[in-house]
Batch of 4 targets.
Target 1
Amino acid sequence: MEKDKTKLRKLIGGDKLILIAAIVVVFALFTTLNKNFLSTTNLVNILVAASLVGLVAIGHTYLIIAGQNDLSPGSLAAFSGVLAALLVSKGVNFFAALVITIIAGALVGILNALMVNKIHLEAFIATLVTQSVIRGFAYIICGGKPIAISNKTFITIGKLRMAGIPFSVWIMLAAIAISGFILAKTKFGRSIYAIGGNRDAARLAGLNPERIVITSFVMMGIMCAIGGTIFAARMNSGQPAANVNLEFDAITAVILGGVSFTGGVGSMGGTILGVILIQAFNTGLTMVNVPSFWQYVAKGLLLLFALSSDFLRKKNREKKLLEASKKNG
Amino acid sequence: MENTVEFRNITKYFPGVKALDHVSFFARSGEVLAFLGENGAGKSTLLKTLNGDYQPDEGEYLINGKAAHFQNPHEAIEAGISVIYQERQILMELSVAENIYLGRMPVNKLGVINTRKANEMAAAIIRDFGLPIHPTEKVKDLSIAYQQMVEIMKAYSRENLKVICFDEPTASLSDSEIDSLFKVIRKLKSEGKIIIYVSHRMQEIREITDKVAIFKDGCYVDTVVTGEVSEAELIKMMVGRDIGDIYDALDRSKEIGEVLLEVKHISSNYVDDVSFTLHKGEVLGFSGLVGAGRTETMRAIIGADKMISGEVYLEGKKIVSHSPHDAMQNGIVLVPEDRKTQGILGNLSVADNINIALLDQHSDKLGILRKSEEVRDAAKGIEDFRIKTPSPDKKIMELSGGNQQKCVVARWMGTDPKVLILDEPTKGIDVGAKSEFYHMICEFAKKGLGVILISSELPEVIGLSDRIIVMRSRKISGEVMRKDATEPKLLALGMMDSDLIEEKED
């Protein structure tokens, strides 16, 4: 029993009680305001809406733990949706189109990583470049007009349900499980923590920070490509103007989930909770008819809350360390 | 007036550690009592217990025969117990008098501060102490030594001052400043105060203290009269073993074998044309001033900095290391100079820090780590290098400096290297851990490793090395065998000479 508890704690990353409490509060609040909030349909809707943010948040979990960041996912997801729809409309087989889209996403990841590794740009600024450039290409390749999807397989991807749960949700769950395993149990995962904590020391310890950074950005690129394609399938069209501010939600979710903005700390378990929280929050705001202008304000405040709790957690860690070193020093 | 302080069975726990273990002893007026012990022996914890910063878990302390329970330092100060810390506890923007009477400035009936009176009172104390400072001077304009004096006067200005503790008071003082501090301490002593003096400097302890209380691992060992016990004896009591002749005690019965590493004419952005050889079983010292290029030479060899030209041969075969990872695979590893920023991975556990260089060995083709092997090798490292940690899963930052450094050594020894480079391995580590490192270094050499030891401590580099290379402004300036090595010789080789200085300015 005791052991189960510690296991559970490890899985969700120890100090997640506040986060779980916040989720409960958000659910309780919106249910009081609109009792449909807890309906099955709505819960499924929340999960569906969370699926794209979830995929991107996986990428952000890797990148932010590694001491990086990425502001381009919104653009890349939109670009990917448009690209897949365009290829299919030209008669390319859906799966071939998907593979090409994924390769394109990976290339954008490599581009981001090169800017960080080779011209030593801060990831925040480097990916601002791709955010704009890739959004531009999303419009350029389709001439600015959304591309409708008529391919049957493609449409099915958007409509398919397994055990009553839409396919996109299953994809997100699978991706979270796999990427969580990679983060916790593999050499690559351990390396991410190491370079995020202290890049110089990690390099001197025999790790290759540049390669780890490239891999992380490539993973993000792939997540955006898959997420963007599925999003297009759900919308029945590739839309160049879609997914603006996607990275904003994903970063908020990841920080809420306990990944430290300064790198080296966090877990995939926390990210899941963060994604659930932010998507419940967003859906709730719409359901209780908060005007969309005010939703921006609310989202900003939620990010502030996330960053503040990150700050407090950091203080707490420092305090613990101080206590511990006091006893040794 | 006779004052006494008595500790009875004081015990203090911190998570996982007994910081003080039934400490009992007695101190009386007119004595300067030294606290002597390694880092972590419990000296500071005891001071903080006496001044109310910590509450003891067991036991009690008596001031003048009466049990005292200070809840915080303020209560202790009110009761006449003051601690002078290394870091100044004064307000820089205030005047000397304002600092001395902080919180108890003389006031008139309306509660208005009477600055003139405060200055007069402060002037009297300053005269008493014989100091050339003025009550109205701002403290920030004083030297560090006088700032410390202001703190002492602040404690002294309390009529009821009984105990005054100094925690490494001379750390940033010059010789003449130390003299005037000692004058003041003698004055306090003659006035019947109890003086507790924490310091690592034997010479000072000999000069100013009457008795020495020795602490080891949270336990009180004994109190001896200063001068009656030799320095070597004191150190033995403090570390629990004889390290008086620490270098002579090392087991150096080993054979120096064939050439292991040959470095030929290497240059980087930081060093020029460096060549040397290292043999199996040899400890090769690198001496020289900080910035002479010792660290940078090693960084070029392991591929941390780019090697512009030159060649490295290991066991006769040419090797190329573009990165520390390559060097590790070639069998050359470096324990870096700055433990905190280059050695440890502060966000990871002890086990992860030890295993970080073994990720390849511990994982399968898919990169999945084999937990059991990680657990096994972490346990082995902790045992082999006697790393003191409550658990392998503890964050490495929670360990003491010496134990953190052992983790880094364990990390590299786990990769089974041929050449081990140690860059200032004992910097900031206490005496006991230092001697452990020395034994380790000798053991590594005995096993046939080639060890390169960079050290700025001359006795260390002379005591451990079979041969010493001296560097001076990016180049090797000389080589000395162990039997010829003296401190002046190494210093002479390490100092810049005039034409080199000119060259640098070009």
Target 2
Amino acid sequence: MRYGSAPRLKRDLTALAIVSAAYLGLSTLVSNSYYQLIMTLVPIWAMFGVSWNILSGYGGQLSFGHASFFGIGAYVVTLSLVYWHLSPWLGIPLGMVAAAAAAILIGLPTFRLKGHYFALSMLAYPLAILYFLQYLGFQEMSLPMHRDNPIEFFQFTNPHTYTFVAVAFLIAGIFVCMLVENSRFGLALLAIRQNELAAEAAGINARLWKMRALVVSGMIAAAAGGFYACVLLVVTPDSVFGMLVSAQAVVVTLFGGVASIWGPVIGAAILVPLAESLNAELGNILPGIQGVVYGVAIIGIMLASPDGLFWTIRDRFFTPKAPAPLPASLAANAPAMRPSAAGTPLLKVEGISRSFGGLRAVSGVSFEVNAGEILGIIGPNGAGKTTLFNLLNGVLASDAGKATLADETMTGKKVHNVCRMGVGRTFQVVRSFPRLPLLDNVIVGAYGAGFADAEAIASAARALERVGLADKAGVAAGQLTNKQLRLMELARALAGSPRLLLLDETLAGLGRDECDDVLDVLVRLRSEGMTVVIIEHTMHAMMRIADRFVVLDHGRVLASGLPRQVVEDRAVIEAYLGKKWAAKQDA
Amino acid sequence: MDLEVLIENVLNALAAGITIGCIYGLMCIGLGLIFGIMRIVNFAQGEFLMLGMFSSLYLVTGGGILAFLGPYIGPFVGALLAGPIVFAGGALVHKLLIARVSGLRTTGSLDEGHFGQLVVTLGISLILQNGGLILFGSTPQTVRTPLASSAIEVGPIYGDATVFLNKARLIACAIAIIVAVALYLLLEYTRMGKALRAAADNPTAATYMGIDTDKTYRFAFALGSGITAVAGGLMAVYLSFGPFVGLDYVIIMYSGVVLGGMGSILGAFWGGLTVGFVQQCSALVLPPQLQNAAIFVVFLMIVLLRPQGLFGRSAERA
Amino acid sequence: MLEVTNLSVSYGGLRALTDVTLSVKEGQFVTVVGPNGAGKSTLFKTISGIVPAASGEITFMGQNLFGLPPARRAHLGIAHVPEGRQVFKTLTVRENLEMGAYPKAGQDAWHHTLDRIHTLFPILAERALQLAGTLSGGEQQMVAIGRGLACAPRLLMLDEPSMGLAPAVADTIFERVSQIHKEDGVTILLVEQRVAEALELSDHGYVLETGRMVLDGPYETLLRDDRVRKSYLGLS
């Protein structure tokens, strides 16, 4: 469980209970059978939206093909009923299993893609299945009547019962979503959505989490689809695998609010009745009115409030309470830090090189960093400093050479595995989850290092203490200042209990005083035994805290040694100020 | 006897593949312009194809303006005129909707604005498809021309094996090639074309040169829509279509553009040609419903195995 | 010609420039030097309109640039040779230069400027039909400068032309820039990390450090001032 989940869960569960009771109460008053059907469909589409939300809302992997899973659920239930007389009690779980298998099959190749390629490819799957089914001759299938055994076969005489069951399904789906949202699963997904690279650098195995999200998402979608078949009693390939079905998941969730439990519910509650009623009233003259409504809704919401109604309403009308400070005892249970013996070499870089096309970005770079020291990497623009970090961290593969951390090889490992070895990294551009509290932003680092929930919270709390932000733990990251955001990045790296910190331009854009504050934190960390390698341009800052410098120019090590020596070094002066200046100095 | 039939089938499939492939090539150029220049994934490109078909239909049949041209010339002029009509529509769509979720406004934002573009164009696609259903009805239509039922006979080539070149498709193919060449000349040799390519290559530098990237993108979007619409008008001559025809072709278009390599307009033509070719040849072995499924499989294989396509510049893969 | 008054700019959430004032008179060669992260590129981006100013004023030839869209500024005669060259990689050398001549002033003077560019950088004539992306760093820099000249500019702004270039190549580039200034009388605003070369060519220099102008004056004064070195090497 995440820190602070308990009150949020309680609030959401209470709200869920109230809303469900109200909805069900309302449904008993409705007698018109068409409107009764709509009241049943709303929770089904909401549940489908919830499933989509898990992968695409929280996880940010936009999928335009969720109909694959919905349709699989529907067809498994239908086919198993028709051919095996299997009750939907078994058919729906069977459909969920089939969907999980499909998710793995689909995910394995498709997650190698990102962004628009991913969305497009996801579109291809349900359409391909649709064509295949049409080829096989499945035009329209009716579910056989079993009115004698309503409960066994989900065929109730009283239409209200369908609504109750639909709401029950939705509640189950929301439950799963709540579990996801309030656990490290949810935070990992949000981190991946926000900045997959930074998430990996914090130790999150993005591929694995995305796959898990797809499987969970697919299973919920299949359950929705399976029940949908029971409600409509007729399935055609187009009605469950078609474009409009995939679109409905997207529209309903985007409209209502991505990455929130209530989004799909709000979206479905508004759009489904709207579209269906318009279809009923005007369907004769305006046969495509449903699609038009969805299209307009989705364009409107993207232009007006891209995150969805829920967030717009919440931001406008609900000012968050002042957050309670973290109890001081929280950090006490943090896992022990692992300082290495001071003075011994911790990081050894030997002959690392990397070229891009013909350009040698990093060429034969070698240096050592001793435990407990701060090493400054400096050099003119374009010298290859960030590329060097990317090579150490696993973001890029090196062409030659290697790097070891306490004699264990770093190079060649994937990013999240390098993090697990004990390497923390910050990036030039800070990305946070603006709506989440600072603690949640930081704790991702602890999850990445493999800590269990309670340990992770403690570790994050301690990390915040170490950077001096403990009192801001509950503040939403969107309200933090620049300096605080930089410290947040640092805390996130610290939360994983690293042995080595790679800091990339942590001081960029900070004023003099803010700089000093951050520098104080770094000095304090060093006194606790942390080893730091830092890239910086702010020279006066580096002079203050670096124990040694390594100067890079055009991808090579130009000089290294004590700061005073390095800045007097002629080669260095030449690199920064030019040959003529250095010559003039000699004269 | 069987060998002759086989050869005849193969040769006819090849012929059909090339003629239809060229038309697909033109269709893909339209998308390639948009995808390649603006990096916008336009979900609604299939609907621009559809609008091209219907524009041509209404221009040519019944009380349409071009009815006087008769069924031999009319359909083809209609196809060409569909271009400017959809061009105007595309410009409007870009100005009102697309520009607000793309371009310089979103560079630097988290996902370079892809999310917004994808979703907005999905919305446009829904509106156009279903709006089309309302306006045009669901009865399948064709732009009728007697040329569609007559063919030039080439042969006999081997025994009795004859290649039948459908006249309507042949003319459509020729027009497609002419339009593609004209576009190529526009892009290579005119000031506007070069500005387009510059804006695609490096929008910031283009702005430094004084090129108004917003207007340039609008032109590219409108041009891309119009070109795909012309292809649609040409296809209308031998296909029967309804408001949802776009869906069938959107994956084909993307397959062609990705195969040709994103960013290469010429590549898009070759990609489209290849995809059309594969589709027609697959008719030799696959039943009709599976042909499109086969294209999807091809699409997936391309993005997974060689996302930069045949002529592409950069791989945009994980 | 160019007056920047009390300019303050925030970029990427950071305060990039604070209260910067500089002036470039017609026919002058002005250089802005400063260590990395000082805000030099941001200054150019703001003059070009890509980055909005938070406060302060920029006037060019008496016209206030506030609110003028970036694409219009080139048409006024401001040529920006960007940091990292930013050539159009998929266009040929000749097409790159043609794009430089996009504004009307450039089009009118095209033949004359093309000759001039080929005289200054003969290799561009040789490689006219080659794709700019395949050229070496130094050659790309020449393309970028040629592009800047192609619009027959009143003000030529060069952002770190020596970056990433081997010293000998950078020297050639500086020579050419000096030639352009002396022989064609083009007003030049140069931003550079390589202090000595840059200052030597210029009439007036400004030193930018963490977003503020800390020093300015004619070349000789600055060269004698040890504060410049200290600022670069963090000894202040």
Target 3
Amino acid sequence: MPDVVQTPAAAGTRMGEEYLKAYRIMLLSRILEEKLSALYRGGKIKGGVFLGRGQEALSVSVGIHLRKGDIFAPLIRDQAGRMAFGDTVTDTLRTYLGSALGSMRGRDGNIHRGRPREGYYAMISHLGAMIPVVAGGLMARRFRGETGVVGATCIGDGGTSTGAFHEGLNTAAVEKLPLVVVIANNQYAYSTPTSCQYACADLVDRAVGYGIPGHKVEGTDLAECLRVVGGAIAAARAGGGPQIVVADLLRLVGHGEHDDGQYVDPALRQARVGRDCLMVAEETLVTEGWASTEDIRGWHEEAERDVDDAAVRVQRESEPDPAKEIWEAISSRHLADRFADA
Amino acid sequence: MNITYLQAIREAQARALTDDPRVFIYGQDVGRFGGAFKATKGLAEQFPGRVIDSPLSEDAIMGVAIGAAIEGMRPIVEMQFADFSTCGFNQIVNQAATLFYRTEVPCPIVVRLPSGGTPGSGPFHSQSMEAIYAHYPGTIVLAPATVEDAYSMLLEAVAIDDPVLFCEHKFLYNHLKADCLPDVAMPVGKARIARSGRDATIVTYGAMLHESLAAADDLASDGYQIEVVDLRSIKPLDTDTVLASVSRTGRLLCVGEAWPWGGVTAEVIARVSTEAFGMLDAPPQRLNARDTPVPYHPSLWGTHRPTAGTIASATRRLLEL
């Protein structure tokens, strides 16, 4: 396990700024996800709602260290990382609520959203599949002579068991690509505990097999996540090749909002791994003197206001119109097989 | 000049690499070795850094190609055998084929699938995957049957902004020769009347075109004039050319080397039956490989797939209906 972070007094201000910025994104993400949960329970969202509660510190640390021009393929529990990379409350709500104005225009929903032209790739549901795709994006950048670019993608402990995870990481290692794969070891893949998922002592040991650096971090500690994930991204950016980061934490919600997660071992909830990273961050803000409890209360209220306003606005937007939908799956319209629609 | 179907595929890739800096080739053994069939022979030397050996990872090969395509490249993937594309199936059908509809970002990838049977190749080096890929929305599926088409359709495939499954037939690689490469070509999406006739229509593609043409020759000696349609493009399927031919002959036999269940032949018959039922003088027929894995031994393989002999027999039965 990593050492408990010691805040160097000299770096206090700069570190405090980054910490605070990350915290505000975590908070907005948490409050937005609570809204999504309420909308789901109120029957306003069709399909699933999948939340990142408990994983915000890790996720935000990825997005916050990426730059414009980098590639990010977030996964299911990365609302905070998405927002740090530039996703918005409005587009999140639009995608969940099926607004025709959302980036997926009702053609896909919930966490399956992105803007690939902006380096923000839209995940498919098949776990591990985004790893080689980000690798390919990085190969394209290399073809074009771009340097200093990083591609990052996130996955859970369950996703590490897929063939795509292995093939993608191995390929990235062979090509020495600036890829960072962040693994949220959140103790359960849906209901499957880690004891049924892998037999190695620690997932970070996998790095040795790929010949790449592996980093371990306590996923409930924002300062540690910022330091370790930031370090891995900097190493990849500097030409150090692929990196994996393994964070221990606990998924504090069910797999989706349809799942009460009753199978989670109560002992884990009481353990250090089961801490709520947002509460840990708020305690740190106060003890470090970076914010007061009044500040924090005010930020909560501000975020709730912003999210509520956006939710009201987005719920008034039009749904996609089947009569106006272009029912074509290819861009070469002259090559569409029209018979099937006849 | 005497050029084979395989050389035409090599030449098309050389031309694509020359003409378009966004093109690169990715696959197993495609680099200095020149590919399992030598379809990329010499290209790594001619185009340094643009013909890249991959690990033995079909899923990652496809994933890499998709990521590169998102970023504006035009990758050509060589699957060593079409059969192995099942290991990259998820990326092809769920990632590449859904990308444009989901995100409005096109996915210009050519996946070369060395397809179909050759004697002794057995269950895992002989498969024809065109129906599987055509089943999914978001794909274009091509099956060139001539040297000229192998060249021109591959070049056109590289220029298409969508995922193209290029089902090149291994049996034709060295069997088929032409005098020269074409300057002008029939576009993708159009079927070709490979032989004109008035008594019955055979609709086919790939290596079965040549078996069907041989069957038509055989039937000509009995006085029958058989029209043979080479589909060329599986998806989109040129239904108009098929319907026009059937409306002239009144009889249809579809021939495919692939398995029968839910296949290309079934799709052609469904379209003809729904659109031109009144034009038919007899129930439409089809002839496919048997519904077993492709056998290894040449004597079994030779009767597993349709041949000129079985196609001629099926056509005779159709003519008597």
Target 4
Amino acid sequence: MSLWKIAWRSIQQRGLASSLTGISMALGVMLVVAVLVIHGAINQSFLNNEGLGYNLVVGAKGGRLDLVLNSVYYLARPIENIPYTYYQEFIDGRFAPTVQTAVPLCLGDTYEEFRVIGTTPEFFDKLDYGGKQYKFASGRNFKAEETFGAVIGATVARDTGLATGDTFQPSHSGGPEAHVHEEQFTVMGVLEPTGTPNDRGLFINMEGFYLIPEHKSEDEVPPTDAPAPHDDHEHDEHADHGHTDHGPEGEHAGHEHHDEHADEHKHAGGDHDHEGELKDEPDVEGASDDGPGDDDESEHAEKDAVAPDEPEKTATADTDAEQGASEPAEKAESDGEDEDHHSDGEHGEEDKHADHDHAGEGEGHAGDHEHDKAGEHEHAHQHEHAHGEEHEHADEHGHEHGDEHGHEHGHGHGHEHGDEHGHEHAHGHDHAHEPVPIEQREVTAVLVLTASIGGAPPELLAPGLMKQVNEGPVAQAAQPIREMSTLFTTFVDPLRIVLLSLTVLIVIVAGIGILVSIYNSMSERRHEIAVMRALGAGRRTVMLIVLAESILLSLAGGLAGWAVGHGLVGLVSPWIADQTGVSIGAAQFVGYELVIIPGLIVLATIVGYLPAMAAYRTDVAKALSTTP
Amino acid sequence: MLQISELRKSFREPDGSKLPILNIKAFELAEGDQVVLMGRSGCGKTTLLHVIAGISRPDTGSVRIDGCDITQLSEAGRDRFRADKIGYVFQTFNLLPGFSALENVLLGMSFAGKGTDASRARDLLERVGLQHRMSHRPGMLSVGEQQRVAVARALANRPKLLLADEPTANVDSAHQQQIVDLIRQTCREEEVALLMVTHTPEVAEQFDRVERLEDFNQAVAVA
């Protein structure tokens, strides 16, 4: 009969006390395991480079952590955008050589509580997660030409009931501007669970995303309000869409400047660093006056640095009011809101005003350039801008401004374009949307996997590309892993240490409970020990039996706690997955857990030492003479 | 088989003085002997058994068992020797309550370092008439049955010498004779020498050799 069995019999003999101390140990170990596993799994999924499939995130300048939380984890508040053309730099531009894969993301919409992410099919074709390819539980990836195609994550499918073939309407998640888009996207496929934040995403074709009018401009006009659409204003709307990211401030500034002088426009443009600068380069071709106009464009109508194309067009537009208008009109087509805004005719109406503002901005840019050359155009633009102000402030003001600058021009200009585009818009909504000009596009972020040259790990090129991006004025690049590990080391790790310390303390207290339990039993056990000694057991043997008992109690409790701890993790894992997109299975283990068993043995040996020594020192002759 | 010579053992009193307990010039037991040891209470019978078993160490003198002077052994050596060569039956049985009858017998084997022999343990329990009680805990056995288990346990390691300290004192008179018969018979079968302490004259008179400790323990005589 082994010492272990003898010890186990002794534990059984005092079942109640033993099980109570065992339970306290189980409780402690359970908490340790839960903290370890949950933290470890989160740590792993947040900090594991390979888990993402890319190593850089490029987005608007600002908080890097915000960028990472947004574009990688779909958490935190929405952030600014960057021009689509900047994304193109990663595809075939100056960044391309160091880039293996670049996938754009357009954020800002939601469906129920889940994020809607505009992207390209490459997200699932070229990126992987944790070294695994994305698989579809049903359906397939959407195709680039399937403008309103979408793929949804497993959690989304589970919680919303959406399935392949279903349609859904993203809604704009901009606080007071929140509303449901009219565009319907069709679920082409449902992802298998990935254990990543992507389980909680609805991925829509970016092309379709751009066809949602609000994504080209700030939506200041509530859809319900818009009474009578005005042709002129359609243009305006388009311009607004282009501006998507620019807040009301940008518009206001722009408008004000317009009203006063073209130069002021420049200033406004200056505020918006990205676009203005980008466009300035192409603009150089035009007159010095164009510069300001470009800025405005960039800010208001088009953030994309498509300057080369536009200046020309705008120039033509300037000369010919109609021509100039035609382009904006096209943009307007893409915007779905045009319908609502058709009744621009009069500035008095709020809706119209809003339209005017947008129009003023959008065209204003082109217009400014043109206007420099042709006075009429300028007036028209200013007029529009004036309207914009009206919207914000008061209709009356808008009218006044308009009067000053010349309503006629503005209206004429706008009307022509508006009419053309108005038709187009209607078509777009009902039948087929026309692609949005690249200049009007924006992306929230670009997920970049740097190239691996000569078999070297892609991470080698990441710092260089990051520096390149960050030194530029347009965007910033962040390494998700680094940002997250900074966050972790700053906040999460200390928290874990506190939690772990507490749970370890609980384990130690449980260990002391075992000590007390065994030690208290020593008086009654002294006789048993003496009997065993009389049967020939040595001092060391009885000492080891007591130690074994302490270890058995700790291990039995600890193993139970370990199992229950994993069960607990399994129980809360759906909640964690819902909160963070990080899925943790009950069977997910952490390396630190390997320390638990040896740790428990050490602890049990320490707490068992005292009673074991009492057993060792038992005076056999004396103990035998006392009756139990 | 057992030779004791010049054995002295004293306890230290609380005031520091020594209280002699044992002072035995010579005491012998031949192989297979069955001897009763009598004596009034407090004359050192149990202490003598402890010394013979190696549980207590004498101040001086030698205790040779099967040719080995256990007073020369270390404590661990005596433990081993005791496990190997000496069986011990207590007045209060001292079965371990957490173990079944069979396990109590096996426990006696497990300290000898020879491994446990379950078939021998069962055989012993059958011979003491407990073939149907093997998996019972001591609490579920009558006192008579408990003492039988204790006898089986004491003989488990095929000892050379069985020390029985008033094995029938706690057993009702109806079973007293059964226990004595059992012990004597199994000792004979196992060729084990028996030294039994008893206060009961009816038990003592069954033995060929009865020793009174007062007669050869000079410590007591002096006192």
